[in-house]
Amino acid sequence: MSIERTFIFSPRRADGLPCSKILPDESFQHQPPIKVTIMSYNKVAIAGAGGNVGSAIFKQLYADKYAVTVFTRPGMQSQIPSDVPLVTVDYNDVEALTDALRGQDVFISAINVQRAMGSENVMIDACLRAGVKLFIPSAFSVDFFSEIGQKCAFGLPQHKIAGYARERGQPFIIMTTGPWVELCFVQHAMWGFDVKNRKATIYGDGTTEISGSSFEGVGQAVSAMLRRPEPYINQIVQVSNITFTPNQILAALEKQAGVKYDVQYKPVDDLLKQSEKATDFPSKHYPLMLYTVYAPGGCRWDRTNSDALGLKEGSLEAAIIKAADELTSRQ
Ligand SMILES: NC(=O)c1ccc[n+]([C@@H]2O[C@H](COP(=O)([O-])OP(=O)(O)OC[C@H]3O[C@@H](n4cnc5c(N)ncnc54)[C@H](OP(=O)(O)O)[C@@H]3O)[C@@H](O)[C@H]2O)c1
């Protein structure tokens, strides 16, 4: 069930002056208050709640007291609190998914779309049938719609899903979060930072500014957006809670390790050349993904949406050090 909050805004004065902080006077007499209804959503189903980003989104929605239902695939286990409904459903079975979605306001997909090609089209069809008011696909990534982002978007389901939702008439929000700092720069050495061997390859001179997010930041952005979704419906929304440079990632990793890394700097265009030479999909795609992030302006946006959603700027150093501590303690 969705929640309606009604706000009464006083109108401008008859003489056109703004009315804030002005005591009521006779200039208001013939102007009734304007009623503005703001819709927020409460009943939220989420698929992929055990994944990297899905677990952070689930944690925030649960903490913020949304009525969350977790969907999982047949045969899968999910570690969720006992008071959260768990529904096992095949994401490719439109009838079953429609039944599971009835009564939900929002369906968030945080599944690994690369492993489940086509499932989100079925999810959109099921949302339409079940009357779900908003679908958030599992994008949470770089901006595949920007000029540079389009280079690496070919063949990716995230790029096509907005078109499918628009065509079918299902309201959606695509969230572009930039790289997740804990995953990309600590866990996955392919991004250039090899924590285990204390080596780094930096593309460019290391001073390019990048808009990214911590897992917690993505969860906070989703939760805040569901409280006031209207401005974002059917939009590609750029959010970020950490702005940083590759040199700052290196500094945080060196601080965590207590030693200097073995570092080499390479021109960012090397990534385009690597992609051109490659013949299979992942080897062609990954350098372009890195290019999108490391090319100047490729993954940098202002804080307009983040500020409107109340996202505070987080600490890159704290996020990197915590993730690297966790990684090294497991090794
Ligand atoms: N911004 C970034 O830095 C960044 C990095 C990586 C990925 N991404 C994006 O974020 C999305 C989620 O990535 P992630 O790393 O959070 O995913 P993940 O942890 O690998 O997987 C998330 C969930 O997907 C479900 N899943 C896995 N294989 C599936 C399959 N074959 N069919 C259906 N569901 C399957 C599982 O949920 P159940 O077992 O509960 O069904 C799993 O918990 C990606 O698709 C990508 O678009 C962004």
TrEMBL record:
<keyword id="KW-0521">NADP</keyword>
<dbReference type="Pfam" id="PF05368">
    <property type="entry name" value="NmrA"/>
</dbReference>
<dbReference type="InterPro" id="IPR008030">
    <property type="entry name" value="NmrA-like"/>
</dbReference>
<dbReference type="InterPro" id="IPR051609">
    <property type="entry name" value="NmrA/Isoflavone_reductase-like"/>
</dbReference>
<feature type="domain" description="NmrA-like">
    <location>
        <begin position="42"/>
        <end position="274"/>
    </location>
</feature>
<keyword id="KW-0560">Oxidoreductase</keyword>
<dbReference type="GO" id="GO:0016491">
    <property type="term" value="F:oxidoreductase activity"/>
</dbReference>
<dbReference type="InterPro" id="IPR036291">
    <property type="entry name" value="NAD(P)-bd_dom_sf"/>
</dbReference>
<dbReference type="InterPro" id="IPR045312">
    <property type="entry name" value="PCBER-like"/>
</dbReference>
<protein>
    <recommendedName>
        <fullName>NmrA-like domain-containing protein</fullName>
    </recommendedName>
</protein>
